[in-house]
């Protein structure tokens, strides 16, 4: 699907599609061909940012007092509009990302995106996420309320489910009652524009404030940092490259502003000796399927394997190498992803990792790097853990072969924070004693622990934690996936001390506003009214 717009695409500010304030433009690249996609998108200057911030601040005066039911109307209508434009969204995202139309985009990611919006609508409508807490004796009551305008920076690897104007951060921020300024990812601006048009239609259909949802495509680094620091912006949701994220986080930290970022993760996987002895060939198949899925371009991709030195381990490694060598390399999302992957492989190799297969760009215009397996000893890993946990985002894995389980524990303790950590063990419990030691160490380094299951999938479940210690995310206490918990990132806890009943938010008054909202009354969670 190609486009040939003569003029740059408009930005969406204050409910209007308007020409950007700057003449600078950029083009996305089709990673399957290496060619520039014809549509030109604007690089906004501070004037656009300033207008968007002013509109978002005005919208917040209204949105913070909207009922959950009204917010849910918009989210449900938006989900409906997305369903109706499925074919165009899938075609555009495929051109811009090279991700397969089917099943990845059409049957997996787009339905997940729609479901997230509807779950967020349900959470807004129900209101239990506000965690209303009432102490009748002291006449003190509290609940979570909307925080303020939120800027959402989306990643390149999920053009739907994490899109800045349709994904999880967007849904959570809106459901909590906040306006969103979406900053498109430069790899899929056309996809984001399509979402923006559908969002605008849903806003109009449900009578929402004009500045509730706005869209810009790119800014200079200076203007992006200025926007993050601006007092009209309450918080930021960011998923993407570690370097750029840390630059923005430093600005947010300087002004005391919440910055919820997903930055980097190698997602360690431990294959215990009993598991390899019991079902090694099956596990090799399982790992390769996970490691090469989507060319490894998942934030939960298993990028570091920890194994105990044994004959079974050598057989497992050889099987992985053979499968990586025989499998066609997937198309990477962009030239920048390709160059970053090659650079990371070089960093690991220069530190002493031995290249077992792959390691170089696939010849031709397509964005692709050969499937790559590297190997170190546990001792080498411990000699320079900082370098050897360099994230090689894509179809590459580092295997560390260790002398003992204690060495595996020591390596885990030397890791930075990660999103996930996985342990494969003997199904009959022969590994249980050592498993407990490894799991105890792993729990301190990850947000999600898995047993006998690859980490690649992230279920949209209320119990899911898609987060973890730094640098997996910027705060270990929150999740980017899992409604209603994800809403709390974009909310403010507000206490009402001796405030009259008629002046309280509805959720804190005597009657339960929905009849289905859970509230803590004198220490007991209940659906009942205050008697």
Walk me through the structure:
This protein has 531 residues and is α/β, with parallel strands linked by helices. Helix content is 38%, strand content 18%. The chain has helices spanning 46-63, 68-84, 86-97, 101-126, 168-175, 189-206, 221-229, 242-254, 273-291, 311-326, 335-350, 378-383, 385-388, 405-413, 432-443; strands at residues 11-13, 16-18, 25-26, 29-30, 35-36, 41-42, 133-135, 140-146, 150-153, 180-183, 213-216, 235-239, 259-262, 268-271, 304-308, 354-357, 372-377, 396-402, 418-424, 446-451, 491-497, 519-521, 524-526. The protein is globular and about 75 Å long.
Contiguous runs where pLDDT drops below 50 for at least 5 residues: 1-5
Tell me which CATH architecture of the largest domain applies here.
3-Layer(aba) Sandwich
How much of the sequence is in beta strands?
15-25%
The tally of domains stands at 2
CATH superfamily (homologous) name of the largest domain: Aldehyde Dehydrogenase, Chain A, domain 1
Q: Which CATH top level class of the largest domain fits?
A: Alpha Beta
Determine the CATH topology of the largest domain: Aldehyde Dehydrogenase, Chain A, domain 1
Number of helices: 15
Q: What is the overall shape? A: globular
Largest sheet: 7 strands, mixed
Q: Helical residue percent?
A: 25-40%
Quaternary form: single chain
Question: What distance separates the N and C termini?
Answer: 62 Å
What does the average pLDDT come to?
96
The whole-angstrom Rg is: 24 Å
Structural class: alpha/beta
Going across the biggest sheet, name each strand in turn: 16-17-18-15-14-19-20
Q: How many E strands?
A: 23
């Amino acid at each position: 699907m190609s486009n040939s717009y003569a003029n740059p695409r408009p930005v969406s500010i204050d409910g209007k599609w308007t020409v950007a304030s700057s003449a600078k433009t950029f083009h996305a690249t089709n990673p399957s061909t290496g060619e520039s996609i014809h549509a030109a998108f604007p690089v906004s200057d501070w004037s656009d940012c300033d207008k968007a911030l002013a509109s978002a601040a005005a919208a917040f005066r209204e949105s913070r007092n909207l009922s959950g039911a009204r917010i849910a109307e918009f989210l449900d209508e938006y989900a409906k509009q997305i369903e109706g434009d499925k074919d165009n969204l899938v075609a555009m995202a495929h051109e811009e990302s090279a991700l397969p139309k089917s099943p990845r985009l059409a049957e997996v990611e787009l339905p997940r995106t729609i479901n997230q919006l509807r779950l967020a609508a349900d959470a807004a409508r129900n209101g239990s996420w506000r965690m209303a807490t009432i102490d009748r004796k002291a006449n003190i009551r509290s609940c979570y309320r909307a925080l303020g305008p939120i800027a959402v920076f989306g990643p390149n690897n999920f053009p739907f489910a994490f899109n800045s104007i349709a994904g999880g951060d967007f849904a959570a921020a809106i459901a909590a009652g906040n306006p969103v300024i979406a900053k498109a990812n430069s790899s899929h601006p056309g996809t984001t524009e399509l979402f923006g048009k559908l969002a605008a239609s849903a806003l109009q259909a449900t009578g929402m404030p004009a500045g509730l949802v706005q869209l810009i495509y790119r800014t200079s680094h200076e203007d992006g940092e200025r926007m993050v620091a601006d007092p009209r912006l309450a918080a930021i949701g960011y998923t993407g490259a570690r370097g750029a994220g840390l630059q923005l986080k430093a600005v947010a930290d300087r002004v005391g502003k919440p910055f919820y970022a997903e930055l980097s993760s190698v997602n360690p996987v431990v294959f215990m000796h009993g598991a390899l002895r019991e079902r090694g060939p099956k596990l090799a198949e399982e790992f390769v399927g996970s490691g090469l899925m989507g060319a490894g371009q998942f934030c939960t991709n298993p990028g570091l394997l920890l194994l105990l030195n044994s004959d079974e381990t050598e057989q497992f490694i050889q099987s992985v190498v053979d499968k990586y060598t025989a499998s066609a390399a997937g198309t990477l999302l962009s030239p920048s992803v390709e160059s970053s992957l090659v650079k990371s492989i070089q960093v690991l190799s220069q530190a002493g990792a031995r290249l077992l297969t792959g390691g170089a760009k696939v010849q031709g215009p397509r964005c692709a790097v050969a499937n790559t397996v590297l190997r170190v000893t546990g001792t080498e890993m411990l000699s320079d853990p900082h370098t050897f946990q360099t994230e090689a985002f894509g179809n590459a894995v580092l295997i560390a072969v260790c002398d003992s389980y204690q060495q595996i524990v020591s390596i885990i303790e030397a890791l930075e924070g990660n999103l996930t950590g996985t342990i494969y063990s003997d199904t009959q419990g022969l590994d249980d004693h050592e498993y407990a030691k490894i799991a105890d160490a792993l729990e301190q380094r990850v947000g999600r622990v898995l047993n006998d299951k690859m980490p690649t999938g992230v279920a949209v479940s209320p119990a899911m934690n898609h987060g973890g210690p730094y640098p997996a995310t910027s705060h270990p206490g929150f999740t980017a996936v899992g409604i209603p918990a994800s809403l709390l990132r974009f909310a403010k806890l507000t206490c009402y001390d001796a405030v009259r009943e008629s002046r309280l938010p509805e959720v804190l008054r005597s009657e339960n506003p929905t009849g289905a909202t859970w509230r803590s009354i004198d220490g007991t969670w209940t659906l009942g009214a205050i008697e």
